[in-house]
Write a structure and sequence with these properties.
Layout: H1 5-19, H2 25-32, H3 36-49, H4 61-68, H5 85-92, H6 99-109, H7 116-128, E1 143-148, E2 153-156, E3 163-166, E4 168-173, E5 180-183, H8 189-203, E6 209-211, E7 219-221, E8 228-229, H9 231-240, E9 243-244, H10 256-273, H11 281-296, H12 307-318, E10 331-336, E11 342-345, E12 348-351, E13 360-365, E14 369-374, E15 377-383, H13 410-420, H14 422-433, H15 442-454, H16 457-470, H17 475-483
Parallel strand pairs: 1-6, 6-9
Antiparallel strand pairs: 1-4, 2-3, 4-5, 7-8, 10-13, 11-12, 13-14, 14-15
Helix pairs in contact: 1-2, 1-3, 2-3, 10-11, 13-14, 13-15, 14-16, 15-17, 16-17
Length: 518
């Protein structure tokens, strides 16, 4: 059917804008008031016909139409060679390969074969009749999709008989869909990252990209353009050299591969195991691994290959080798350096160079170490404390004589306490004197100062005396006495004799009163 002159005029304009002006498809579609798909088709046909700009003057509209839209062969003509479409699909998944390049190779082997437009149309028709029609969108070894399965596997406590539902981590490369699945204690961050590590070791190689579904454990802020990852997740990605690109919110096609993998795991792995009783995660994971072998070795209808075969043929050669060392989980925390030049981590204090007082730092909490970073540079490293409330101080972090750049000193705290009364002064001096490094008591002293603002000095004096009598040298002890009104008990025990210590002057030293330190 001959095309109208107005359509041929638009085709000439499309060719001019593209071949002469180098305009984009979007710009051409807007200028000619036609769809971008139509522009693409015209350009592909022109490339297949070997047209260049300017067109020869002798090419009329009818001649141009024949070049771009050659008539289909009649039934009596000999059939043209049909490509192996499954081979085309596999080759198309490789990096840098396009359908046009494959068609050019086809025409080189079969000069009398199909034109590009017909070739592409036949390929699309073939894809529409297969179960793997989406595979052409994923390059070999490029993406690994990850998610938690909807179904869980039940594990029974052998001692109590209580049944626990354990989540199952699932991953699959975009091309081969070679599935990994493993059950974990919970869906918290250590297990989420552990699932990535186990999946990469299962594949024995590293893809370019990991695509999660915006889990709160791994993605702190979901954003289409610049998602913010949990620092530990970002550290894992840097360790393996992969990019993490979370699927867009409410865009199921972004994660179709892992959703299909999850469906396969639920249907062929978890459902058949639902009637069995497992008494440990290891036992459950052994059963999962056996079922995965069956699933991954099953032939897929479209490529007539198993997931394992397709992975070994296409994905694995395109992936990078694993790094020499395995990623080790570490927690990250943002801290502000206190006046005692320590940061608090899980109830323990770790020192940093005293010049960082008041600055915000990043703390990496590993299995056996605690590292402190400022602006990406490590400024302190300690062995992790095994017990709580155990200050760890590196001597090189201290100021010389604890006075060169320290705004607060033990003497200043004691002088301030003397303005409240002798009992408070004796209590503070005893509190500081009982520490290996007096600076470890600075936080408690700041707490005592806060109590002086919330309660009358007379009450704080009585509470300090009672705490001293009980030997309870801590901020919480004095606070509890005040909040429970124990300082106003009818009978107040007398102040216990101070222990013999060269750093303790005693309450009588302050009976004359003194002024608050500046």
């Amino acid at each position: 059917m001959a095309r109208k002159p107005i359509e041929m005029k638009k085709i000439r304009e499309v060719l001019r804008l593209r071949l002469d002006r180098k305009a984009s498809v979007r710009e051409i579609a807007s200028a000619c008031n036609i769809g971008r798909t139509t522009v693409d088709e015209y350009l592909h046909r022109a490339a297949a016909a070997g047209l260049a700009w300017p067109l020869p003057e002798e090419i009329t509209d009818a001649c141009l139409e024949r070049r771009l839209f050659p008539p289909r062969p009649s039934k009596g003509e000999p059939a043209k060679p049909v490509p192996d479409w499954n081979s085309v699909r596999v080759r198309l998944s490789r990096k840098g390969m396009t359908l046009l390049l494959l068609w050019q190779q086809y025409r080189k082997d079969h000069p009398d074969g199909y034109g590009y437009s017909r070739y592409a149309g036949l390929y699309r028709d073939w894809l529409g009749k297969t179960d793997v029609r989406m595979l052409q969108h994923h390059k070999a070894g490029e993406k690994m999709f990850v998610d938690w399965a909807g179904l869980k596997i039940e594990v029974t406590d052998a001692k109590t008989g209580q049944v626990h539902a354990r989540p199952v981590f699932v991953s699959a490369p975009g091309l081969s869909q070679y599935i990994f699945a493993k059950a974990y204690e919970n869906e918290q961050l250590p297990n989420w990252l552990g699932g990535h590590v186990d999946a990469l070791e299962f594949y024995g190689a590293v893809p370019e990209v990991a695509v999660p579904d915006n889990p709160k454990t791994g993605v702190e802020k979901a954003c289409r353009y610049e998602p913010i990852l949990n620092p530990s997740y970002a550290e894992l990605a840097a360790h393996y050299g992969i990019a993490v690109l979370p699927a867009r919110v409410r865009k199921p096609r972004d994660k179709a591969k892992v959703e299909n993998a999850v469906l396969q795991v639920e249907r062929w792995v978890l459902a058949p195991l639902s009637g069995r009783t497992f008494f440990s995660l290891d036992e459950a994971n052994q059963a999962i691994a056996e079922k995965l072998v069956e699933l991954n070795d099953k032939l897929m209808k479209g490529p007539n290959l198993s997931r394992r075969q397709l992975f070994e043929m296409e994905d694995l050669p395109a992936m990078r080798p694993l790094p020499a060392s395995r990623y080790r989980y570490a927690e990250w925390k943002r801290c502000k350096v206190a006046p005692d030049y320590h940061v608090e981590v899980h109830g323990n204090l770790y020192s940093v160079p005293f010049g960082l007082v008041g600055k915000s730092v990043d703390v990496r909490i590993g299995v056996g170490t605690v590292e402190v970073f400022l602006g990406g540079k490590r400024v302190a490293s300690h062995m992790r404390a095994l017990t709580r409330r155990n200050p760890i101080t590196e001597p090189s972090h201290m100021p010389e004589g604890h006075k060169a750049k320290a705004e607060w000193t033990p003497e200043r705290f004691v002088r301030w306490a003397g303005t409240v009364g002798p009992n408070t002064a004796a209590f503070v001096e005893a509190l500081l004197g009982g520490k290996v490094h007096p600076e470890h008591g600075f936080r408690m002293c700041f707490g005592i100062m806060r109590l002086a603002k919330d309660f009358e000095h007379q009450r704080l004096e009585a509470a300090s005396a009672k705490a001293h009598t009980l030997g309870a040298f801590s901020y919480n002890s004095v606070k509890s006495i005040l909040e429970k009104n124990l300082d106003s008990a009818p009978e107040q025990p007398s102040l216990m004799p101070l222990p013999s210590h060269e750093n303790i002057r005693g309450g009588d030293y302050y009976s004359g009163g003194s002024s608050c330190a500046n």
